[in-house]
Amino acid sequence: MAEPFAPSKLEAILSCSPLVASALMRHGAVRALPPRTRLAAQGDVLGMLWLIVEGRLALEAVSSNGRVSRLGVHGPGDWIGNYARPALCVADVVALERVTLVAFPSGRLPEIVSGEPQVGAALAGAFARQLEATLARLDARSTLTSKGRIFAELLRRAGDAGDISPPPVVSELALAAQTTRETASRAMGELERRGIILRRGERLSIVSPRLLAEMVV
Amino acid sequence: MAEPFAPSKLEAILSCSPLVASALMRHGAVRALPPRTRLAAQGDVLGMLWLIVEGRLALEAVSSNGRVSRLGVHGPGDWIGNYARPALCVADVVALERVTLVAFPSGRLPEIVSGEPQVGAALAGAFARQLEATLARLDARSTLTSKGRIFAELLRRAGDAGDISPPPVVSELALAAQTTRETASRAMGELERRGIILRRGERLSIVSPRLLAEMVV
DNA sequence: CGCGTCTTTGAGAGGATTCAACGTGTGTGG
DNA sequence: CCACACACGTTGAATCCTCTCAAAGACGCG
Q1: What 8-state DSSP symbol labels residue B147?
Q2: How many CA atoms lie within 13 A of B189 on its CB side?
Q3: CA separation for the pair A92, A43 (Å, rounded)
Q4: C-alpha–C-alpha distance, residues A47 and A32, integer Å
Q5: Closest residue to B139, CB basis, from A90, A142, A217
Q6: Cβ contacts, strand C, under 7 angstroms
Q7: Contact B95, B36 (CB under 8 A)
Q8: Global pTM?
Q9: What is the DSSP string of B46-62?
Q10: Based on C-alpha coordinates, what's the Rg of chain A?
Q11: Which residue of B has its CA nearest to A62?
């Protein structure tokens, strides 16, 4: 945490060559942020691109009625901000925990890339992955019901293991699934009554992933 | 249209070097599709990446209740499909008009990129742009009301000119804004009654962009 | 003219949020 | 040590937004 950030870590995070890592380190500024820092606000003209190295950042948009919805959560290896030129920021960017990142002004990376094409290759892979994730999220928002999104989120967090520990905080789960505490609570209550999940202290087990998957609608 | 596709067009579309264009042409297969072709279906394992050269493609997801929602529309210079490896396709991919594209198997491009890093640079720019667009769409879906999305879509299509011609087809507008014909019709009726827009034959004029912008909620 | 597509409008239903109330556990300050 | 605030979870009832269903009119086209 406290030790200075080493370029070799970049290699691991981006799975790129030492060449690329050192080029990035040479042009970017390393920053550390305490939890809850707000890097940018909805409506700002954002002229930065950040590479997350440690910790997670969330994109949160607040709608006119005051509700906040989470557009995404990004972790090490993800890029946040504007690549080519400054642009309006659609959402707040907030640190969920202690975060280390490398900062570049918008437009700098394209320059670097033309000098060191290897960097572009690494970027393309990262952007493609993030695009896919964002598209999947858009799909969920567009085609699933509120309860369906809760169920999908549970399955996603459980992974193959089939359980989640520590058990998810209901209100946080609701935020991630773009719905309310109450709806999330009702959805989980239903799952528990039907014996599809089991909540025991520090662990939430998914008894029947099959049934749960069928309820993702 | 009918003439064979020339690499020089790629340079213009991607604004890349001849080197990159010829590398892409060498590794990809040019295809032409008639309108309404469905390139891939929701749930397919899709092992391709396409570069659109002419025409537009839509990503359409159908939800369990049968409604289709449009996740995005892509045109020349956009990439659709899976970059690194085959993956489940979240939505149908359909041609809105006659489309020409260059097809690559998933995973091929990363290979090319490692041999010809210039290609990676071009890809990074394109992916960054698409990521930004997708994020903006996700934001709209998450924070705006149905009517708000209609209003926003109208403003977007009007651009600075302040009018749209030919006037938008209501049902198509509804699809783009992820709502129903009826809701879109009511939203536009309201705008017209309040004198915010004017529909005259082959032209729809936005009388008061300011008022309209304030209604985007 | 008949047909299909598109639009408009009304009425009804349904899903999700909002409001409200209550119970719990945790940490803080008196 | 206790009172208290506070965050979280649960549950019920009311409200609201949006979709669905239904009907009717406008328009272009063969």
Answers
A1: H
A2: 6
A3: 8
A4: 18
A5: A90
A6: A 65, 67, 145-148, 178-180, 182-183, 186; B 169-172, 181-182, 185-186, 188-189
A7: yes
A8: 0.91
A9: E-EEEEEEES-EEEEEE
A10: 19
A11: B143
User: Is A132's CB within 8 Å of B82's CB?
Assistant: yes
Q: Residue B142 and residue B172: Cα distance in Å, rounded?
A: 20
The single-letter code of the amino acid at B126 is A
pLDDT band at A4 (very low <50, low <70, confident <90, very high): low
Task: Look up tokens 């924070």; give the residue.
Answer: B143
- A189: which nucleotide lies closest, measuring CA to C1'? D10
CA–CA separation, B41 vs B63, rounded Å? 13
> Minimal Cα–Cα distance from B79 to chain A, Å?
10
- Summarised one tens digit per residue, pLDDT across range A143-189 is 999 999 999 999 999 999 999 989 999 999 999 999 999 999 999 99
Q: Tell me if A75 sits within 8 A of A59, measured CB to CB.
A: no
Helix, strand, coil distribution of chain A in percent, nearest 5: 45, 25, 30
Give the nucleotide nearest to B192 (CA→C1'). C8
Q: What is the pLDDT of residues B90-132, one digit of tens each?
A: 999 999 889 999 999 999 999 988 888 788 888 999 999 999 9
Q: Are residues B124 and A124, on separate chains, in Cβ contact within 8 Å?
A: yes
